[in-house]
Each structure stands twice: as structure tokens, then as C-alpha cells.
Amino acid sequence: MNEFDLIEKYFNWKNPGSDTFGVGDDCAIINTTANTQIVTSVDTLIAGVHFSKNTSAGDIAYKALSVNLSDLAAMGATPKYFTLALTLPELNEVWLSEFSKALRRLAAEYQLDLIGGDTTKGDLSITVNIIGEVETGKALLRSGAKVGDLVYVSNTIGDAAYAWQQIQQGIKPSDFYLNRLNRPRPNIKLAQQLVAVAHACIDVSDGLEQDLLHILKRSKVGAKIDLNAIPMSAEVARYVDNTQDWCTVMAGGDDYELCFTVPKTSADALKTIEKNLNIVLTKIGVITKNQDLEIVGLDKACKSYQHF
């Protein structure tokens, strides 16, 4: 099997009703609609950095696409298309079949078309470039936070970092924590609801502390966060209580939850969103005038993920 047979067999599919042209040509052709803006992002996952050597092909495929979907969620965008660059150490059809099936299932869930990409031989890595649409002028940005806004996060923080830490220690995490690490759920529906109420938004990928700082820097504001308000799952909460290791929660990353700011008048709207989506949204602090981040209860500096 050569490169072109591989693409044809595992990655040349088309969703029903799709009007795009991509796989099989030199470039993809995308039809855009009036009154919308294109939103695009790219992420690369590398073996040993973003997933362990024992991670299944299905989990790798799911995470590679999901983390890009999370970037679209942070903007309040609707997913439309993606491209895939796949570097493989060898041609393993069992691995490719599992990878392809998981990728296709998640793409179908979000009505997302695969429109092109590339395959090469080398150390295992997966790069996804995702493209979405948002109504003109409605995108959620990092630069919109205002003094007095309340700071919220979705669901729980620290689960994925806790699972990764266990793996590094030779401990097998429970299925719940493995899924939080390997199969994060992109908050697309939440973000689309937040477009009407939020001033600023970011997805938590490199650590809550660092990612919130991105909002503060772009918005030229500060924030005061209550450490004890950070929502945690039961096992992570027990771990922190026993070790006082808040850095795993605040700086571990890989949460792919949303951190966003809203005016105080949006409190009732958030309760409605919680109920409609069966999701938990937790207030963790407030935006301030001083252009720094104060985390009440954290007495040491944490180091969030850095690529270099």
C-alpha cells in the first residue's frame, strides 16, 4: 500500500449533503455564506508529549480532532471543515483502521468534513487544521473582558493533568480520568450559547493560570481568583487535600474546558444555560483594574505547560 492508497482507503470520505471538494485535489474548495467570518486553528499532537506510547489509535484520533474543536468552541464558532497531516513510523493497517474510525465518528458528530491533508513517514505526530464559521462580529475573543466581570469555568479542572501524573508514576488511571485525558469533550454547544452573554473566552489547554493570563493581557485588566472556588472532581479534590499540590490543577493543562468572563447581569442567563445543557458553570473570581492575577490561597508560583 502506498501513500495514495492509504488516503483513499482510510481518509477519503464525504458527509451526506456536503458541497465541498478537497481530498484528491491539490487544494480544497470551500463554499462560504454571507454575513459570516472564517475561524481557523491548527494543533499538533506528538507521541510522548501529548499522549503516552500506550494510548490507543482511537484515543489519539479523538484527541487530535477534539482539541481543535475546543479552539473553535473558545471562539463561539460552528465547525465546518478540517485537514489532517499524519506522520507515521510505519504503515500499520490495524492502527490506521482504528484511527480512521474514531476520527470519522467524531467528525460526523459535529458535521465536520475532512477536506485534505498530508501523510509522511517519521515519528508519530498528528496535525489538524480546523476551520469554522461565526456570525460576523460575534466571535468570542480574549480581548473583551471588562472590570467587574465575573470569571467562570466549565465543569471540573485538573482531571487530565491528574491522569497524566498517574501514568508517569506507573499507575493506571480509572476510565473516567483516562477519558478526561484522551477524549476531552469540546464545549461547542456551551460556547454558542455564551456568544450572547460572555465578554471574553479561552479554552483551558496549557493550564488555567496561564490561559486566564492570556485573557488578562489581551484585555488589559487583572483578576482576583479564589483558589477554593476552583471546581474539582472528587478524586482530584482528595489528592489536593492530601498533598496541597494545587499546581496540578492550576497549571497541569489538557482540561479543554472554557474559562470566560461575563457581566454580573448575566448570572440568570448562565443558570438557564446550565439547565439546558446539563453542564456545571462555576464562578471562580472577578476581573479587576490592576493588570495582574491574584490567586487567593496559592502561596507559590506554578509552572504551566511550555513547548520550549
Keywords:
single chain, 308 residues, 60s Ribosomal Protein L30, Chain: A, Phosphoribosyl-aminoimidazole Synthetase, Chain A, domain 2, 2 domains, six-stranded mixed sheet, four-stranded mixed sheet
In words, what does this structure look like?
The protein has 2 domains: 12-135, 60s Ribosomal Protein L30, Chain: A (2-Layer Sandwich), CATH 3.30.1330; 142-296, Alpha-Beta Complex (Phosphoribosyl-aminoimidazole Synthetase, Chain A, domain 2). The protein has 10 helices and 10 strands. It has helices spanning 3-10, 57-75, 93-109, 159-168, 175-182, 188-194, 208-219, 234-243, 246-251, 267-277, and strands at residues 36-46, 78-88, 113-121, 125-135, 150-154, 200-203, 222-226, 258-262, 281-288, 293-296. Strands 6-8-5-9-7-10 form a 6-stranded mixed β-sheet, with helices on both faces. It has a 4-stranded mixed β-sheet with strand order 1-4-2-3, with helices on one face. Strand 2, helix 3 and strand 3 (113-121) form a beta-alpha-beta unit. The model is unreliable at 21-25 (pLDDT under 50).
The CATH homology group name of the largest domain:
PurM-like C-terminal domain
What sequence of helices (H) and strands (E) makes up the elements? Answer: HEHEHEEEHHHEHEHHEHEE
Uncertain spans? 21-25
- Provide the number of structural domains: 2
Q: For the terminal residues, how far apart are their CA atoms?
A: 37 Å
**Average of the residue pLDDT scores:** 89
CATH class of the largest domain: Alpha Beta
Please name the CATH architecture of the largest domain: Alpha-Beta Complex
CATH topology name of the largest domain, in short, is: Phosphoribosyl-aminoimidazole Synthetase, Chain A, domain 2
- The number of strands is 10
Structural class: alpha+beta
- Tally of separate helices: 10
Task: Tell me roughly what share of residues is in helical segments.
Answer: 25-40%
Strand arrangement across the biggest beta sheet: 6-8-5-9-7-10
Radius of gyration: 20 Å
Approximate strand percentage = 15-25%
Shape: globular
